[in-house]
Amino acid sequence: MGFLMGLSRAIDRLNDFVGRCVYWLILIVVLISAGNAISRYLFSLSSNAWLEIQWYLFSAVFLLGAGYTLLNNEHVRIDVLYARLSPRRKAWVDIIGGLFFLLPVTIFIMVLSWPMFHTAFVRMEMSGNTGGLIRWPVLLLMPVGFFLLSLQGVSEVIKRIAYLAGRAPYPGRGQTHSEVIRDV
């Protein structure tokens, strides 16, 4: 169990690092958007590349931040029934959901998205818009983002199993990611 707990901590640290880096992309998107609006309205200058880089960065926030969001237990869920469960039952729901829903879907999306990235990379595919950007970087975000999410899913399953085995506190809402990392 010690190796698995160490693996879980390493995955948590990776997604925590990526998530904190992704924070800065939001600021960059805001600055690009403001700069694009100012140049368009004051100087009548604009480029599709400025719009596309905003879309790319916004995609990066969602895709690369998904694992960080799961680490912090902030994904949207329907808590009508889940909230009434005991921590042990919540742990079982999380384990079953992680193993039979989250991991298969994330792996499936990774597998399906890789050929799209590879094809765009090999062909150096460009946007169809005038002045558009190359497409492979944004297509690479899909397999990488779902890889990070699947890694975090593995970490969450490990933490729930450790809780059920009595080796870790319940890693549920109310605990920040740093408390979970420290407690595991």
From TrEMBL:
Pfam families: DctQ. The chain crosses the membrane at residues 21-41, 53-71, 92-114, 134-151. Its main location: membrane. It is found in: Cell inner membrane. Residues 30-161 form the Tripartite ATP-independent periplasmic transporters DctQ component domain. InterPro entries: DctQ, TRAP_DctQ. Signal peptide: none annotated. It is a multi-pass membrane protein. Keywords: Cell inner membrane, Cell membrane, Membrane, Transmembrane, Transmembrane helix, Transport. Part of the tripartite ATP-independent periplasmic (TRAP) transport system. The complex comprises the extracytoplasmic solute receptor protein and the two transmembrane proteins. Belongs to the TRAP transporter small permease family. This is TRAP transporter small permease protein.
